Amino acid sequence: MTARVLLVEDESSLARGLADSFSDEGYDVRVIERGDEALSAVQTFRPDVLVLDILLPGLSGLDVLRDLRAGDPFLPVLVLTAKGDVVDRVVGLELGADDYLAKPFAERELLARVRALLRRSQQPPSTVPTEQRADLLLAGHHFDFRSLTATGPDGALDLTTHDILVLKVLAGRRGHVVSRIDIVEEVCGMGSDATLRTVDNHVVALRRAIGDDSRRPRWLQTVRGEGYRLASADTPW
Fold it and tell me: Which of 102-140 are b and which e, b meaning 16 or more Cβ less than 10 Å from the residue's Cβ?
């Protein structure tokens, strides 16, 4: 079955180029240039993924996302933000965006992120949590996946945004092995400079932050030759 992509983007040249790229990938794509037409397009086109610019005429992308999530908490949404605009990125995540990408970006990276969102949304119910949690309590440490912050008994943890995003990917499939290449694609996009070794470094930082023994990890487990797994709460040592 052909996946449907709804692109809400008011820069005509960018929208045409992205539409062509999505079509070349085999997607059924529809382009909307105004924010106040986005929700009706979602209802009629019924997309499998929404790619949503923040700066739109008629209604901002953040307002579109807020109204969308009031009625549809599950449609995968990737928001496009101005380069370096941390405020829009964080607010978008707080409102329920599944991913973000800052302009300018490589089309290859956008396509990789859309593929990752579609793959996650189409996984069998047995491997997808019934509720994607906005936070996680792990080994006495609190991870907020909306604000991308982490705190422990002594205050903020020394972790990067990408460290926390790696944990978010693992938490979304808790108890299941996630390959390193899937983690790279979902966190960074295939167009980035990240390598499989980069994932290892993020896991090392996470283990250090929560006090997980790297030689015998309880929580962030290495599955040799496959990837990493966040252990279930009842998994024994």
Answer: eeeeeeebbbbbbbbbbebeeeeeeeeeeeeeeebebee
* Sign, Cα dihedral of 36, 39, 41, 43: negative
The secondary structure of residue 37, as a DSSP letter, is G
**Residue of 28, 30, 40, 24 whose CA lies nearest to 8:** 30
Residues 108-147: pLDDT tens digits?
889 988 988 888 777 554 444 434 567 899 888 999 988 8
The residue among 84 and 185 whose pLDDT is bigger is 185
Per-residue pLDDT reduced to its tens digit, 65-104? 999 988 888 899 999 987 656 667 677 777 888 888 888 8
Query: Three-state DSSP class for 166?
Result: helix
CB 136 within 8 A of CB 143: yes
Other residues' Cβ atoms within 10 Å of the Cβ of residue 197: 8
Q: 40 and 67 in contact (C-beta within 8 Å)?
A: no
- Cβ 79 vs Cβ 52: under 8 Å: yes
Please name each of the domains of the chain with its CATH number: 4-122 (3.40.50.2300), 132-230 (1.10.10.10)
102 φψ region: left (φ > 0), alpha (ψ -120 to 50), beta (else): beta
Residue 115, both tokens: 């593929």
102 forms beta bridges with: 81
